Amino acid sequence: MDTESEYCTKTGWLCLDFANTVDWHASCSPVESLNNYTDLIEWSVNTGIISGDAKDVLLRKSEEKPAEAQAVLEKAREIRENIYQILSDAAHGHPIKTTDLKGFNKALASVLSHSRLAPYERGLMLDCGPRLDKLDSVIWPVVKSALNLMTSEAITRVGQCCDEKGCGWLFWDSSRNRSRRWCDMSDCGNRAKVRRFYAKSK
Prior knowledge:
globular, two-stranded antiparallel ribbon
């Protein structure tokens, strides 16, 4: 069962972690971390989407079908960009672009076609868990996570790092007055403090 709490996320939301698999996303020179299908699978293992055994099965299948694996990687990147742009616009109060919604809805339709209602605790849940016969199934929980975030009040808590160099990292702002501005005060936040200090000293 793919509930959000089962995953090892840095931000608290699987879809935000996935959107952050590009460093310096808002800069002119973003740095890609998903350079091949293996990278996508390693990320899926690290976040708890799949187990080590499932990793071995999917990697073997990807070696047997390299063209399909490459297509899945490109699809994953496109979905990531749709999610990133939608949440970035939401964080800044900008209108959501039709092209991004269209891209996400296409991915959502594909995921729902493979999903089913399953028992969970005292109720039911939409099971979008990965399948070993589908190379793209590791993306399904990410899309479900994005759907849950985008259709709940939690989306009002999404923020984006304000670093002037274009960090662009997305985060879930748990501060009481929603005042968080940086991905991490010890990183981009500290650089901003140093810049302000030197500006004042001049």
